[in-house]
Each structure stands twice: as structure tokens, then as C-alpha cells.
Amino acid sequence: MTRTVLLGTVGALALAALTAAPALAAKPATTAAANPFAAASTLPFEAPRFDIIKDADYLPAFKQGMKIQLAEVKKIAENPAAPTFDNTLVAMERSGRMLDRVNQVFFSVVSANTNDALDKVQTEVAPKLAQHQDAIFLNPKLFQRVKALYDKRDSLNLEPEQAQLLKVYYEQFIHAGAQLNDADKAKLRALNTKLSSLETAFQQKLVAAAKAGGLVVDDKAKLAGMGDNAIAAAAEAAKGRKLDGKYLIPLQNTTQQPALSSLDDRATRQALFERGWTRAEMGDANDTRATISELATLRAQKAKLLGFPNYAAYVLADQMAVTPEAAQGFMQRMVPALAAEQKREAAEIQEQIKKDGQDFTLKPWDWAKYAEQVRKAKYDLDEGALKPYFELHTVLEEGVFYAANQLYGLTFKRRTDIPVYQADVLVYEVTDKDGSPLGLMYFDYFKRDNKSGGAWMSNFVQQSKLLGTKPVVYNVCNFTKPAPGQPALISFSDVTTMFHEFGHALHGLFANQTYQTLSGTNVARDFVEFPSQFNEHWALDPKILAHYAKNYQTGQAMPAELVEKIKKAATFNQGYSLGEVVAAAMLDLQWHSLPADAPKQDVDAFEKEALAKTGLDVDDVPTRYRSSYFLHIWGNGYAAGYYAYLWTEMLDDDSYAWFKEHGGLTRENGDRFREMILSKGHTEDYGTMFRAFYGKDPDIGPMLENRGLAPEGK
Ligand SMILES: [Zn+2]
Questions:
Q1: Which of 130, 253, 318, 540 has the most CB atoms lying inside 10 A of its own CB?
Q2: How far apart are CA 639 and CA 628, in angstroms?
Q3: Which pLDDT does position 701 carry in this prediction?
Q4: Which of 581, 630, 21 lies closest to 280 in space, CA to CA?
Q5: Is pLDDT of 15 > 60?
Q6: What residues contact 657, with CB distance under 8 A and at least 6 apart?
């Protein structure tokens, strides 16, 4: 199953601390009236006005939006009337509409379709957003009002969602440092500004490093094994960079690169792997190591200021796992079985290399290729033979949408009248089971040089009954764009990614909250990947698979024996695919367990030692992300949170086991899951929600079994 995924959400007040560097010269201000973010869009569902938004609109919209919200917040904080739920919390929820609009749209395009102008805006605006957030959460008068309400919460006769909103606000204030004295608040503000600048710098360096890191090949013969379509795509990619006649294999954001499973020429494999491994460690302007080492130090200092022993402890305090020890202990329970499986797989692959008539020692750039041979030999399954059955648009409409129809009664209609930010983006209107409009959904599937790596979901518009908004959601992926005239054939791993990101989308679309702060995917990191990973299970459901896996030329359904082979092969190579994720998650926790007084770290030395401590075979199975290109933790808000993908896998496998015990793919089961999990946002505690659905606490058993690692299993 794919784990290339991440998610970015930007809440009303939980402004993502994405971004930045030194401020640039101010641009001429646009009048508020002319700015497309000044008022709610008049398009259906308040869809963004990509038909009129210009790059030059963002910066003035941010400035104006922050100014308006600060005035609104000042009015709330200085209200002479005694604090009430309405004049404080509801007023906060209504504040910052313009800023929210520009925020949601800007961070989507700067991630998915950036350019120099947008990068400059991000660089300038990121530290300002961090300061803006501090101006709200470190405002003592505002905090006193929230605290006064919180202290007498039992006597306020609040509805459950209101009580939860009060609790969440109070905890956000504490988490943000509202209880610090003035001197410490000043220190915190300076740290937050610096951190947001470093995070932007990391993100921008990495995009440039990944672009520069692509492998250029002169001789077609060196690409033997890749297949005609992939070679045509490589020629097309080279053309896009004015390298006519050559071939370009662009880098994916992970350590392993897809082409490594097919390239016959070992030297080309090694070259491609090393381009990826060292992409952000070239000693040039795109080298991220100095940025990382400073980020780690400053985060540790921030945690200390807020009363925590390290940054991981600070981050996990409001997550489902609560402590780094719980997250680490959970992963530690997998290590013995996982390390043994890695040894077994490595030996099997070394054996395959020998059978192939070769005498070299297995290296990471050989793993995927020879694992593919083992897979063929063991399961007679050829990844290449699957692709004709996975045409992207068919998978989307007849698979992803069909599953949502069978489980939840949703229907989808293509809208070509809604403006998009890039010509490849598809838009659909989503209709609920009772025929009422549910929301709007955008899909941006193809890789571009100006897109961040990986796959993610977020909202252009978040759902709120108070604000009268319905969800406008998007999915972004990085699938290889076919050469002109060719069908978009994707791998089964890409299919899984589509189901995954759409699981996030369902969480966003089913949001049914009064308050945006609690709405949809505004939940903890180690809960938010639960709906997405749960949705991956339907990719292999017999009824769903039969509906979408059809040969793009003949329309024939995938033969039963091929389906059977995919299922049998599902637990293949888990020592690798689970191992690389566990290694990355443990590396993340170790970076963020540094105490504030630790010296500045040498990134490579720290990483080497941290990986050695995992107890896994990290030489054959390198970490999925090296520190220097670990975007999740240095640029995208998953710091000390990468373990969440594994934690939520425990939740989703348990839930899928529940479905299997109760009749599988039925509307009744779907409606129950929607009612108890997908529509709830953060209106309850995560453990409470999960126990209500599942009937008990989460259990690691089904996850290990699914991975073929059950202690009693094979
Ligand atoms: Zn995800």
C-alpha cells in the first residue's frame, strides 16, 4: 500500500505555519474592492475564482485579510461586556473570513502549481502569518475571556459541540503559549517567525533540488526494461526542459524511484538511486542540511519554553497517542517480526540475483528490480501486465466514485464550467444520497516540475453551518503524465493512492459541523489518516475491482486469475514497504526528541546513528525519506507526526475487520461509518469516537495480519 501521502489542512485559526525568508519590497496595494478574495465567491459552492485571480492578488489579500481579522479580534478581546460563548467563541469563528479564503487558495496553488512570483509571496507572507497567529493566541485579554468561560464551563449549559469548541480553543491557547510571561512570549514570537521562515526555505530548496536531481540519460539503450510508454514519457519530460533527443527520469519525493523496478542496466539504476539519495546534499544552494539542523535546534528550544522536555512531547500532547513513548512503543512492537522479515526478503532477493546469473551483492537500487522478479516467480504477477486495466479516468469514475456510491449513496457529475488553476484539473459536483448537493471536488493528478512531491488533500472552502459553507475539496497526486495521445495507465500503487486521497476527501465532504474549527479533517494527525487509509481497502473489494479494472483497449474485465494474483501478492515485500516507513517514522521521532541544550547536529551523522538505533535492516531497506528530503517533517506540519500513518493503519485495519465481520460493502455499514466517524470532525475525543464505532480500544493484530507479519501467521 502506498504511503507517499500527506495531507495539508489550514484551519480558520490553525493557520499552517508553512513558509519563509527575508521580507521583500512591498508591492503596490490593490484596493480591497477589486481583490477577488475580498468577498465570498459568487460561483457555486463559493468555488475559487480562478478565472480572475492573478498572482498579484495574493499578497494584498493576505495583508488586508490579516488586518481585518486583527481588528475583529481586538473588538472581541476588548468588548466591555462579560464574556459569553457568543460574544467570544462564536465571534472568533466568524472572524478572518477574507484571510481564510486567500489562505486556502494560496497554499493549494503554491504547493500544486507554483512559480517564482508565488514563491516570493510565500517567502514574504509565511513569517507574517506566524506573527498573526501569535497576535491572536498570545493576546492576554482574549485568553482571559476564553479562560473565564472554560473555568465555568459546567454551568454554561452548552450543547456538546459548543462544549467541545470551548475545550479545543482553550487547549489551543495553552498549546500556543498563552500562559507564558511577557518576556517568554517575546522569545516565542521570535522563534515562531524564524521557524516559519526556515520551513519555507526548506520547502523551496527541496522543490528546486528535486527538479535538478532528475536523471538525464543520453542513450536510449541505457533505459532498456522501462517499456515504450515510460520511455516516451521520459523523452517528453526531457523536451519540457529543452533537452530534445535526451531522456529525463524525474525524481519522486521518496528514496525509491518507480523506474528502479524495471531498469535493466545496473549502472543506470545506481545513478538514479544516488541522484535521489543526494538530491538535497549537493553542497549547493539547494542543500537543506543547514536548514534542518537549525530547525531541530529551534524546535527543541520552543518546546522547552512551553514546558516540554522536547518537541515530540509538545506535539504529541494533543494527539491520540498523547506521548512520544506511546508512539515509539507502538512501533517497537513491530520491530522483531519486521526485522526478521527484512532478513528473509533480502536473502530471497540475493538468491534471485544469483539465479539471474549475476554475482553482485544486493544494494538498495537492486531491490525493487529483483523483488519484481521474485514476485513474478512466486505469484506469476507482472506489474506491467496490470497497467492496461488501470486507466486513470476509469479508475476514478468506475472505482473510486463507485465505491462511494455503494457505501454512502453519493453520485458525481463532471462540471466543466467551474474555473481551474491548471488545464489538467478535473472538477465534479458531489450529490448526497437524498439528492441534495454535498460539495465540490477537484482532482489534479499529473506530476509537474512546479508541483511539490507526494499526494495530498485539502479544502478550498471548509464546511460550517454557522458560516453557511459547504465543502470544496481537492486531491493532488504526482502520477506520470502520458505522452500526448496515450492513455493514462497507472500502477496499482497509484490506484491505492487515489482511494487514499479520496478517503480524506470523504472526511471533508461529510463534515457536518456548526463550527469550522471542529469541521471535517481538522483533527489530530494520528486520526486524520484513518479515513484515508480505511478507504484504500475498497480498491481490492471484489465488487469494486470488477467494476473499474477493465482493459482500456478491449473493455474486458480483469481476468479472475490476475485478481487472485494481486490479492495473493498483497503481503509481498512487506519487510521493505513497512520497514522503510517505520525507519522514517523513528528517524522523525529521534530528531524531535533532542533536548533544548543539545549541540547543533551534523545531519548525516545524526541520521546514521538514529537509523542504526531502529533495530531494522536499514542498509538494504533505506528510510523512505532521508532527513534532507523529509518534506513531511521539515516543511509540511508532520514534525514528530510521521508515525501517524502507522498508528492510523492500526485503526483502519481494525475498522475494515469490523466491516468484514458485518457483511462488508453495504450501505448500512457505510452509513454507520459515516455517522460515527466520517461526519464527526473533531466534535468528540478520538478514542471515544473509535470505541463507539469498533466496540473496544484499537488493537495491532489485524494490521500485522494484513501485512503478513502476524506472530502466529506465515
Ligand atoms: Zn493521507
A1: 130
A2: 14
A3: 85
A4: 630
A5: no
A6: 702
* Whole-number Å distance between alpha carbons of 292 and 603: 8
Where helices occur in 613-681 by DSSP H, the ranges are 631-634, 644-661, 667-673
**What b/e string do you get for 610-625 counting C-beta neighbours within 10 Å, with b at 16 or more?**
bbeebebbbebbbbbb
Can you tell me which residue has the cell 483533527?
A: 523
Segment 117-162, tens digit of pLDDT: 999 999 999 999 999 999 999 999 999 999 999 999 999 999 999 9
The dihedral through the CA atoms of 304, 306, 308, 312 has a sign that is negative
- CA 502 to ligand 1 centroid distance, Å: 9
Residue 262 neighbours by CB under 8 Å, 6+ apart: 225, 226, 227, 230, 369, 372, 384
Strand runs (DSSP E) across 455-608, as ranges? Answer: 456-461, 472-479
620 Cα–ligand 1 center, Å: 26
The predicted pLDDT at position 711 comes to 58
Q: Is the pLDDT of residue 276 over 70?
A: yes
CA 217 to mean position of chain CA atoms? 31
Over residues 439-476, the pLDDT tens digits come to 999 999 999 989 988 899 999 999 999 999 999 999 99
Tens of pLDDT along 328-382?
999 998 999 999 999 999 999 999 999 999 999 999 999 999 999 998 888 887 7
Q: How far is the CA of 577 from the centre of ligand 1 (A)?
A: 16
Task: At 3, list the grid cell.
Answer: 504511503
Single-letter code of the amino acid located at 245? G
- Residues annotated as catalytic are 501
Backbone angles phi, psi at 318, to 5 degrees: -110, 25
Nearest Cα to 514, choosing from 94, 105, 98, 100? 94
Q: What is the mean pLDDT of residues 618-622?
A: 96
Distance 395 CA to ligand 1 centre (A): 19
DSSP code for 77: H
What gap in Å lies between CA 200 and CA 196, rounded to an integer? 6
What one-character DSSP code corresponds to residue 248? Answer: E
Residue by residue, what is the 3-state secondary structure of 110-131? HHHCCCHHHHHHHHHHHHHHHH
What does the mean pLDDT of the chain come to? 92
Indicate the pTM of the whole model.
Answer: 0.85
How many Å lie between the centroid of ligand 1 and the Cα of residue 172? 23
Residue type, 115: N
Ligand 1 midpoint to CA 527 (Å): 10
